[in-house]
Amino acid sequence: MRRWPAVFSPFPLPGAGFLLLLGAVSLILLAIGLAQPGAKSLAQPAASKAQESQATRQAGKAQEDLAAWQQAGETQEGQTARQAGKAQGHFIQITASKAQGQQASRAKEPAAAMQSGPSRAGSRSYPPNPAMLRLLVQRLLSAATGNKVQGRIAGLLSPHHGYLSSGIVAAAGYKQLVPPIKTVFIFGPSHQANFSGASVLAQKSCQTPLGEIPLAGIAEKLRKQPGFVPPPKGQTTHEQSIEMQLPFLQQVLKQFELVPILVGSKVDPIKLAQQILPYLNDDSLIIASSDLSEQHPYEQAASLDQKTTKAITSFDFNTLASSDACGKTSIAVLMEIARQKKWSAQLIDYENSGDTTRARKQVIGFASIAFVRQ
Predict the structure, then answer these.
(1) With CB atoms counted within 10 Å of each terminal CB, which end of the chain scores lower, N or C?
(2) In this structure, are residues 165 and 193 in contact, taking their beta carbons and an 8 Å threshold?
(3) To the nearest 10°, the Cα dihedral for 167, 269, 325, 321?
(4) What is the pLDDT of residues 63-103, one digit of tens each?
(5) Cis amide linkage into residue 45, ω under 30° from 0
């Protein structure tokens, strides 16, 4: 029979007493061991597993919420739609809920004051819940494909119709941005009011479900320049052509400042470009927010959009001016800046809503085009 070491049994004890002492010593040693720093390692795996389990549950909840959002409601046309993510045949199935009465309620709102402007695009065009939105943006960036840009992107044409239909095309450009980018200029048309001139949104910051984005000091300087006008009556702090770009920027760039510019009618792209040029440097990015042709049959839209994308990449301002692009003036401003900076233009991706929603009777065209520093 094996004998216990003398340190545990200095004196001979009868069987029962020995077992009692052994049990007591074991308990004492266990207590001492748990009191030592090294004992924390015993608790850490359990805590780590608990954290992993919680993270897994949260991710699962986001997946469930996103799936519910995808299946809810109707599109703005009143029909169920699906968005295709084209990478390797992977489809992201999404439908949007139509916001009843939003247009009417927006028309009644007073002119915007200087404030933080929360996004209103969420419930209509992307999920309003941060975890759901982040998951959707990550999926789009992962699934998007397109031509690889040769060089560093300094300007980008990106669509704004909605993540439901144009998100996969927008993602093809955004996934190729290379930080550091500290200041982002966004030029976009107003969908709420007709006005002449250019206008910087009257707010101190923009806010999406993913967080707040401060406006750069450049924004206030531009407000005071000739050709810039106060936000038009009926234009709130919320504009889809601006807002649809922001979650992608937040996901890819993390920290940056924003200069959001609404481009109205009777704007000279050359003059506006000249006003912007002094504020540009190597860590600036310019985005022209625009869709292409609208409400044409699939084949006709594809033909029209081919002419438009060729005009943009070849700096053909005349052909662009006759196109259906809703933000063609914004595009022209970016093209003029690129022309003066000697940036090249490269088509990254093109789709229309017939490709992404599979509804081809009347479609909207989307392109992602990079303007690249030499």
Answers:
(1) N
(2) no
(3) -150
(4) 665 665 555 533 433 333 333 333 323 333 332 332 233 33
(5) no
